[in-house]
Amino acid sequence: MTSLTVRNLTKSFGALKVTDDVSLAVEPGEIHAIIGPNGAGKTTLISQLSGQLGSDGGSVSLGDRDITRLSMPDRVKLGLARSFQITSVLPGFTTLENVALAVQAREGSSFRFFGTVAREEALNRAALKALAEAGLDHRADVLAKSLSHGEHRRLELAIALATEPSVLLLDEPLAGVGGEDAETFVANLQRLKGRFTMVLIEHDMDAVFQLADRVSVLVYGRIIATGTPQAIRSDPQVRAAYLGEEEEAA
Amino acid sequence: MSDATATLTAPRRALTGRLKAALVLFVLFALMPPLAAALNDPFYVLIGTRILAFAIAAMALDLILGYGAMVSFGHAAYLGFGTYAVAILASWGVNDLVLQILAAIAISAIFALVTGAISLRTKGVYFIMITLAFGQMAFFFFISLSAYGGDDGVALMQRSTVLGMDLLKSDFGLYYTTLAILVALFVLCHRIVGSRFGRVLTGIRENPTRMEAIGYSPFRYQLTAFVISGCITAVAGVMLANQAQFVSPAFMSWHRSGELIVMVVLGGVGTLAGPIAGAVAALLLEEWLGALSEHWKLFFGVFLVLMVLFSPRGITGLLEKAGIARRQE
């Protein structure tokens, strides 16, 4: 059984078809990358998969469960988490608190009005574990708004990890991260590989070809090819639509 | 970082700073009546009770305005429910404060649940307007309630009793009872803010999309906070009715709702102790400026503008600048 199945998904903004009959079958444990030029509709697709955006047609299934009509919070509870391309954290909360909230969401009731949540060791411990996995545990005490850009990207990842997803949607986790930072980040993701299924949107082609088991190419809202990184690299249609541009630019 | 309990120092520091500020306020409140008596100005005890009652309401509003980013412009309705709970129950011969408070809370919970559920479908300025509209509906309901004086209101024959005791008969008794309730409700609000629920509420204020992305549906938490805030405000209304010994729809006009927001902003949004200080400042200024000139609201307006311009975080912000209270992280 596939982890995440997308059938004939569509979305239009006015006359513009942003997601045009997209079908995907993401296998358990794989990293499935979605690449495509700017404006291809990658973030829209992720938002539809996560439930942040409604779809005009088609269906999304998590395992064998149809989740097309479920809200984002309900999808998260079933194990489908996402990270954001543009860092979206709680700026006035510490790094640890940001993650602890995700643990709390997964772990039980938030209708508790008395105990001091900051002293709940189980929450803090689980949050620290997720922070460590994202390589950010040394910054647990810092307010999220004081983090550097690279650290924000790690926090995004840590929060997503703390929800203990079965499928994780990563929207350009490396956006704006360069050099060594990017390398350690890729190594981080590599370590997480196999623990859950990942759908990865990424512009950094080195990272994509290092990490992905399969790659789908999205152009103008349509998937024009799906295959192994090698197959995609040599696909003439893909080269024409996407990779070629980069080579010319370079 | 090895010790999971040793984390979160920054916000905890801000919290204890506020706890200290509140403690100072409460000590000052406790010292006020003997001082007023010594100065032969017992009238201040009654004004003081009024201030304490409004402090309860301002703090309750801060719970949703400051921690939940819900600017309710109809909170005077709950003050009104509190005052009328006293008037109506008293007219039926029920004078017990505890029963009056329970009735006020019950009616406020229902009103907040229904109006909150509808209001929370909107955001920002629309939320402000729709809460204002519901507040006005409650206001006009009591205007047309001719059995209880309608527009003119109704005078109370006596103050409430507390479990058969005449605790509120003297101005001192009323003052200290109100103070005790304020302290208890402050502790309650402080606990809520630091709890799991409070963290979720604050998280929704900071970034609702992020909260949804980790599995929270903001609506349930916002509505719960809205109801809690309405119920606490109703308690303030019960004490206010005893202070004034008079109940009228004037307690629930939209001006009152505005004044509550002013107290919260003046004191410092999202601090709990700040709005208590804000209530003190606003009502004392009203008292003093009102004695100086008929047009005192003009001067109050100037003061408010200066405050917002130079200390957007209110009295709390001023104290932080002076290094007395710790800056909110």
UniProtKB/TrEMBL annotation, chain A:
Transmembrane segments: none annotated. One of its GO terms (cellular component) is plasma membrane. The keyword Repeat does not apply. The keyword Transferase does not apply. GO terms for molecular function: ATP binding; ATP hydrolysis activity. Residues 4-245 form the ABC transporter domain. It comes from the Bacteria. SMART domains: AAA. PROSITE patterns: ABC_TRANSPORTER_2 (PS50893). Gene3D superfamilies: P-loop containing nucleotide triphosphate hydrolases. InterPro entries: AAA+_ATPase, ABC_AA/LPS_Transport, ABC_transporter-like_ATP-bd, BCA_ABC_TP_C, P-loop_NTPase. Keywords: ATP-binding, Nucleotide-binding, Transport. It holds the Pfam family BCA_ABC_TP_C. This is Amino acid/amide ABC transporter ATP-binding protein 1, HAAT family. It comes from Pseudooceanicola nitratireducens.
UniProtKB/TrEMBL annotation, chain B:
The keyword Disulfide bond does not apply. This is Amino acid/amide ABC transporter membrane protein 2, HAAT family. Keywords: Cell membrane, Membrane, Transmembrane, Transmembrane helix. One of its GO terms (cellular component) is plasma membrane. It is a multi-pass membrane protein. It comes from Pseudooceanicola nitratireducens. It comes from the Bacteria. It is found in: Cell membrane. The keyword Acyltransferase does not apply. GO terms for molecular function: branched-chain amino acid transmembrane transporter activity. Its main location: membrane. The chain crosses the membrane at residues 48-69, 76-94, 100-118, 125-148, 173-193, 219-240, 260-284, 296-315.
